[in-house]
Amino acid sequence: IVVENAGRTKVHRHTANLGMAPGSAEHLVESTLEAARDELVRGLGGLLGRPVPVRGGFPDRAVVVGTPDSSPLVRRLVPARDLAPLGPDGYLVRSLSRGGHRSIVIAGNTDLAALYGTFAFLRRLQAQHPLAGLDLSSVPRINHRYLNYWETERLYAGNNATGTGGLDGENGAIFDFTATGASAALNLPVILDRYLVAARAMASVGINGITINNVNANSFYLTPAAIEQEAALADALRPYGIRLAVSINYAAPTDARFAPDTLTREELDPYSAKFRDWWTRRARMLQAAIPDFMGFTVKANSEGQPGPQDLGYDHGDGANGMAAAVAPLGMRIFWRTFVYNADVDADRLKRAYLEFGPIDDEPQPDGTIGRFAGNVFLQTKNGPLDYQAREPANPLFGRMEHTNQAIELQVTQEYTGQNTMLCYLGPLWEEVLKSDTYATGADGRLLAKRLVGHVVDGTAQGHPDSAIVGVANFGNAGNLTGHHFAQANLYAFGRLAWDWTLDARGIAEDWVRLTWSNRDFAVRTIVAMMMGSREALVSYQTPLGVAHQFRSSDHYGPNPAERLARDDWSPVYYNKADSAGLGYDRSPTGSGFTAQYFPVLAARYGDIETVPENLLMWFHHVPWDRKLRSGRIFWDELVYRYQTGVHYVSWMRRAWDALEPHVDARRFAEVKAKLAAHEADAGAWRDTCVRYWQEFNGRAVPTNGPLAI
Ligand code: GCW
Fold first, then answer.
1. Which residue of 117, 288, 310, 542 is surrounded by the most CB atoms within 10 Å?
2. Model's pTM, two decimal places?
3. Where is each Glycosyl hydrolase family 67 catalytic domain found (predicted)?
């Protein structure tokens, strides 16, 4: 291992007393190249089963890591023209053989790129891909590859109270800002192993930023006491290229914790100097402690959170007010579009576009179009509802051509089995990123690049900046994510954030090789389990496009009969079950939501004859007797889908049992136990839903089909 000048670019320590907790297995590094070197020492040593020395000079069979700036050897081995197209984050990994002298060089234009290349190299090695003739290079398609971390809300991994590392513990947040009593001795700036394990995991797939607190934001994270801890965390994560942001509450300036620097409610006017100066002051404090602080994530006028609408302004006014406050500091505002104010339209799915679209279309005094500021990113969930296991793509993708837009994916499995069900989300994200928006340009012609992924990476509509956000699933469980297979979702998110054109199967295969086994039988079986797991979950929970049937208490089990104070939270609002059929009519003769899509999709979704069957009930109220493509009538098909979903889970359980010889005993048993619960809960979904539909159609469960209940 040759890493010249590894300690060259020290990451400045702002926190004097930063240190690892006693007895830690991880250690702090001071630079990104030191991180790369240590990954190689650990990774090569582990994979080869013997220590691999760090050396100077240019020994035979060296792995050389660096940049042309850090390493004269890299300068000699890699022509400058090969590095030029790699940008700041791209890397190359090459095996070279000169005069009988063999080496592998890992290089990029920045230290961080060299670290990314190091992980890519280790990945190849661990997955047993051949190294001979190796010549790979990779450049991310998206600039900002971020996680949002919601602390304890919707976090299904971790065990705070007992520290036993069990899989089903309390929802323990990974970064502890609030420890009190005896455990306060382990509070930040004391760095726990798991912070660095998380940092290494994130960097290994190219994630480069994290918003550390819930979007239902507690203003504590803006107080001096919290900023001191955030600075420590930022220092520890910085060598891995992970930058920090925080979520804020729009009304934070009124919070008494900031007294005497507080504003009145009336002073939250986004155009006022008072409001903007307040945010500039906070942002300055953060930047003083965290020089590379990224900015703020904002959930405003959504689910009870305050926002500019409380003062009669719109989302554009609010986002731009905050953006103006932080622009001089080079920061960004990530403003979420997850809004569904009931006054806007009876159909919840229509509301976000009705609020945001006109701002994007608005002509500006300088002749340009679109009011959102350049340092605003709108952060939009993949679908128009709320992270369901299958949704059509959100119509905002493609429709907001004058605004920076980030896609937000939910890695944590709120609606996809939480900590119990094995559900690999790669296929869900691949489906949305590769779905065609049929977006047209100013001339009315279809854009050449118009998949959702092209919209997100900026190539569809010529946006130079780009971002993707995953709502993270790690907690303080021993394995970070609780369910062993939930790690695959963090992994897949990172790989797709780097290159959304990758396919979910290839990513699953890599992950299985890195995580479980390189044996053919194991790889084939586990990849097969994973690849069908999401479609199975759709089938036994919400087949044929019937949306959101979750009970409100925990969003885990079913309650299709539930009717809540807010109708748009109620399963009955989505299923619209009656004696005629099932599903929400959003066609031109229904709510008209389909008109928010570009014409090709509007026509396709608007017509029950042409809508894809897997989205059927998102757009239509489907008669029980309607003939579907299988030849079965809708009711029979529906029951069949519930059945196939459950059968798949039973198959996964048996398939896992066959893997016992290939998997270590502890993890084998833990997954086995999860699958048993998974199977029972999938059956409960099927039975609860089918019985409830029967109350409306009075029909028996078809018994002549291949899979009678
Ligand atoms: O899906 C819903 C979740 C909320 C979440 C909200 C959001 C953090 O149930 O827990 O709030 O989405 O995305 O803001």
1. 542
2. 0.97
3. 125-477
